[in-house]
Amino acid sequence: MDLVALFPGQGSQKPGMGKDLAEAFPVARDVFDAADVALGESLSTLCFGGPADTLTLTYNAQPALLTHSAAVWRVVSERCAPHLRAAAGHSLGEFSAWHVVGSLSLPDAVRLVRQRGKAMYETGVQRPGAMAAILGDPSESIESICERASAADDGGLVVAANYNSPGQLVISGEARGVEKAMELAKAAGAKRAILLPVSGAFHSPLMAPAKDALAAALGAVTFSAPRLAVCANVNATLVSDPREAVQLLVEQLTAPVRWTQVVQTLVSTYPGAIFVEFGTGSVLSGLVKKIAPEVKIMSCGTPAEVEQLMNVVS
Questions:
Q1: Helix 283-291 vs helix 259-269: angle between axes, to the nearest 10 degrees?
Q2: What is the rounded CA–CA span in Å between residue 199 and residue 58?
Q3: What CATH number is attached to the domain comprising 294?
Q4: 91 is an active site residue
C-alpha cells in the first residue's frame, strides 16, 4: 500500500483545531507543547480555544496549521511511515511537508512559518492588495484576463495566484486590478468571482519584500536531506535537494501555487496510492476529488479519522 501525504494551507484554521487529538493522544499533546516552547507562547491555547480573529492572523494561522499537521502525523507515523512515498502541501502546507519528510525539525519549522507569516503580514500592510476566487470556466484564460486588467486604465497589477482545481482559480494583486479582473472574468462567463478575506496579495509580485526575510530565516536553520521527495508548489516537480527546496520555498511567496499540477504529478508518479490530508479540515481532499476523481482520498485530523486511517493501513 502506498500513501501520499498532503498538508493544508492557510484558511483551514479554526478554533478547537487539534484539541480532541491532543486529549486523545499524549504524543499529539507533546507536539503542541513543543510548539509552545519553540514560540515562547501558548500557541496550543489559541488553537484549542481561539478567539477566531486572533487565530486567523497570518502569523498565528501558519504555525497553528503546521503544528496540527505535525501532531496528527506524529500519532500515525509509526504505522504510516513505511507506506509513505511522497508529500506535498498547499502554500504554507509545503513547510509541513518538509517537516514530515525530515528536512526541518519541529521547533525550526514552527519558528520559520511564524517568521514567514509576520513577513507576509507586514508586507501586506506596506503594500495592500487583494485576492479573489474565480469559479467556473470563463471563455478567456485567467492569464489573459489578468493581463488585460493589469493594463487597464481603471485596473492594476493582478496575476493568477492559485491553480487550485479545474474551475477554481485564485487571483492576487492590487485591489483595483483584482476588482477589474473579477469584472472581466464574469463578463467572460465565470460563474462567480468572490473576494477573499486575506491580509495581503499573497503569491503575487506584491509579496516580494517578504522574500528577503524568509530567505534569511531559512538560512539560519538546518535544512536536512529529506527521507522522501516533496512535490513543490512552484514547479509541480518532486524535489529532494535541500538547496533547491529552500530556493523554491522563497520563490513560492511571489509565484503561483500550481496545485492542480502538483496533484497530477503525484497521481502519475504513484498510481494507486491513497492520498491522505493530514491536519485541519478537508479542503485539499475536495480539490483532489475535482482534479483526479479516481484517486482514493482521506482526511486525518481528528481521533475518529485517525482510527479510520489505521483501519485502512492495517
A1: 70
A2: 8
A3: 3.40.366.10
A4: yes
